[in-house]
Amino acid sequence: MSTAVGAAVTWRRGMRWLWRLLALGVLLGVAAIAVLYHRGTAPAGADSVAAALPAGMRLAASADPVARGAYLARAGNCAGCHTARGGAAYAGGRAIATPFGAVVASNLTPDARTGLGAWTADDFWRAMHEGRSREGRLLVPAFPYAAFTRLTREDSDALWAFLRSQPPVETSTPRAALRFPFGTPLALALWRGLYFQPARFEPDPARDDAWNRGRYLVDVLGHCGACHGARTRWGGPDPSRPADGAELPGEDWFAPSLQSPEGAGVAQWSEDEIAALLASGRTARASALGPMAEVVFRSTQFLTPEDLRAMARVLRDLPQHQRPQTQPPVTAAAARVMAAGADLYRTHCADCHGNDGEGRPGRTAPLAGNRVVRMTPATNLIAAIRHGGFLPVTAGNPRPYGMPPHAGILDDAQIAAVATYLRQSWGHAASEVSLLDVMGGR
């Protein structure tokens, strides 16, 4: 009995020490996160981060910082997030959906109480470069500071000058609705520890200035990867899945990968075709729809031809990856589904897109061979049928043709049938679209 009691006492003492060690480890971890949260995060050599780009790499060179900042704001599509529908420009208030809840874009006008009126150029640079507010609070990474951290100080100051020139708008911004614990300082600090480090833009010495200017536009100002890049379950970039693209939270659309020939990769396009799509929203190969139409409408159509061609060079040079075959082989849809889809296509689609999906040159895109039709997942095809396909109004396409929404005409089963017909006709061999696929896109 005494031996058993002694063993029990020894076991309890050992467990107490184990729990103490675990508690100490947790406290050290929390302390480390707290230090990361409170300390400055500028990297060594921070002064060099503020250096301007070489002359040949500068964007829209202008002696007027406000005019230069206006161009940079267009390139970064700042108004896209920071302008609510029907609201004043740059006054914030737009809810941005994330997998962890909604955040609300802040007021960038120089209002002293609700905007950036009390901020300085240094405060603004800190937000862009370090992802911190004027008070040092960590910003939610829905604000793409992971891309903007490589903005030059010169461009940050020009953006600041432009925003200071806007009329001040006093408005109350609703609080973010992030689920616990994702909006807490410790959670944000942990995310930064995993995925973020302040950095500067490093030109590729093997490339010329125009190419490096294009990479600065694509990777930094345009932050294309914020939508088109695959994400981990915690919302960080996932470079292990370059061909996957990403679902757009709160949207019925999918941002296909720029590194996949089955997605939005343009390695086989000419630079003129890529630049034309960014400038006008349409080419013979593709049209900008959904969120990408908004990017063209608000942002890329206003860039100079030189900058568009620089972007085109970079996008064309991105390494292409085949998406891994993780799904079973495609099986032919049931004859009744194909018959129903064919009948719906003839009734609702053929007048514009042609009996064989050939389209109408200069008016409607061909569906035969169209990779949006064949893409996996079929999210964008379903969204186009349901919500319509509206191209942006641009100087190069001032009166674009648009496809009306069919959500009030076709029910979910009919949308699934016509989408399946498109994906398995004219030589296409894509998977069937189920009723659940359509319902899941709501």
Short description:
By secondary structure, the chain is mostly helical. 43% of the residues lie in helices and 4% in strands. The strands form three sheets. The protein has a three-stranded antiparallel sheet, with no helix packed on it. The chain has a two-stranded antiparallel sheet with strand order 4-5. Strands 6-7 form a two-stranded antiparallel ribbon.
Question: Could you explain the architecture of this structure?
Answer:
The protein is mainly alpha-helical and 442 residues long. It has 3 domains: 46-195; 215-317, no CATH class; 335-440, Cytochrome c-like domain (Cytochrome Bc1 Complex, Chain D, domain 2, Orthogonal Bundle), CATH 1.10.760. It contains 19 helices and 7 strands. The chain has helices spanning 2-38, 46-49, 65-75, 78-82, 121-130, 145-148, 153-164, 185-195, 209-221, 225-228, 271-280, 290-298, 305-317, 335-348, 350-353, 371-374, 379-387, 412-423, 435-440, and strands at residues 95-98, 101-104, 177-178, 246-247, 254-255, 389-390, 402-403. The strands form 3 sheets. It has a 3-stranded antiparallel beta sheet with strand order 1-2-3, with no helix packed on it. A hairpin with a 2-residue loop joins strand 1 (95-98) and strand 2 (101-104). Helix 3 (65-75) crosses helix 7 and helix 5 (121-130) crosses helix 7. It is globular, with a radius of gyration of 26 Å. The protein starts with a helix and ends with a helix.
